[in-house]
Amino acid sequence: MTLRSLIRSFLGPIRLLVMGPSKGARASSIFLLGRRLGRLRGLRRLTKGPRRRRPSEYDRLGLMILTHTTDYLDECLNSVANQTVAPSAVVLVDNGSGTDAVHDLAGKYAIPTIRLDAAASPSVARNIGCSALADCDLIVSLDGDDLIEPGFLEVYWSTARQRQADVVFGAATLIGSQSGLAFTGENLASTTDLRRKNYVPANALFKRSLWQQVGGFDPSVVYYEDWDFWLSLSKRGAVFERVDEPLWRYRRHESSRMATADMDDEIQSKQIIRQKHRRHIFGVLRWRRLLWKVESIRGRARN
To answer: What pLDDT does 183 receive?
Structure first.
């Protein structure tokens, strides 16, 4: 369509709008002008190319792998390579292994490595990994001695998008020194369950924006840093969704971090979590104790 013919297509409706003999004629001219403008918008769209899709907070998925040894790492990275959906970015944090073996093994799968000269707390290592995935909207955390099934990333990613979830976690198959299933408890319909016990594993998907809002993982929490992080998110009203199908393998072994945990550090971490989330955790427990006392008094009065 030339510019002259385009101008002519507007002249008729404009003339009818100005000089129309009746209200009906003027109304039809407005209708015709609307159609012409719609056609003009279509031409502009064609000349400018396809309209850009509005960015979504679920667009880019990042994968963060944490390890301090090459034990079981090859199996882990191989399970990542076999995913049905590839993440937008992957980073491996070598938390003080002290050798080139982790870097060399990651290079076999073309995964960039962040090497820490000295072992840091898991909170610090996780924060470093999240910082490296600055362009991602969602982050999946994965420990280097665990495995993920081929559909893990696809299911977790689609669950987050479809249900507008802030955190997605799911059941796991136990391997190593134990067998069976883990993290198969009742769905977290409220944060009360999370306040009483941590049902959310560290290997989960979460929004990076929420990680920023709560200030990341608390470096002062040496153990149970994932529970502390989930509690911080739940206080901000984060939506938790659980995948019932066990799509990852949770390895239990004698050399794992929790199996060799220092008792004093564990106690100190629990104390820090209690202080941070005192009203959030123990307010519910106090009310339950009070209710139990009232019920026991009523029971005695009846007897």
So the answer is: 86
Q: In whole numbers, what is the pLDDT of the chain averaged over residues?
A: 80
Per residue in 241-252, pLDDT (tens digit) is 999 999 999 998
Query: What number of residues does the chain have?
Result: 303
CB 69 within 8 Å of CB 97: yes
Residue 159, number of CB atoms within 10 A of its CB:
17
pLDDT score for 190: 44
> What band does 3 get if pLDDT is binned at 50, 70 and 90?
low
What's the rounded Cα separation, in Å, for the pair 259 and 256? 5
CATH no. of 61-279: 3.90.550.10
* Count of CB atoms situated within 10 Å of the CB of 32: 17
Which SS3 state, helix, strand or coil, does residue 54 take? coil
43: Cβ contacts below 8 Å, ≥ 6 apart: 1
Mapped onto helix, strand or coil, the DSSP state of residue 42 is helix
Q: Which helix (H) or strand (E) holds 260?
A: none
Residue 62 phi, psi (nearest 5) = -110, 150
Supply the Cα-derived Rg of the chain in whole angstroms: 29
Residue 302: both structure tokens together: 């009846």
For the chain, the straight-line distance linking the first and the last C-alpha, in angstroms and rounded, comes to 94
pTM, full prediction: 0.71
Show Cβ contacts of residue 205 under 8 Å, excluding neighbours closer than 6 positions.
61, 138, 139, 140, 156, 157, 160, 167, 168, 169
Q: How far apart are CA 259 and CA 254, in angstroms?
A: 6
Domain ranges (residues) in the chain = 3-48, 61-279
Locate 88 and state its tokens: 């937008």
Classify residue 261 as exposed, middle or buried by CB count within 10 Å of its CB (0-12, 13-18, 19+): middle
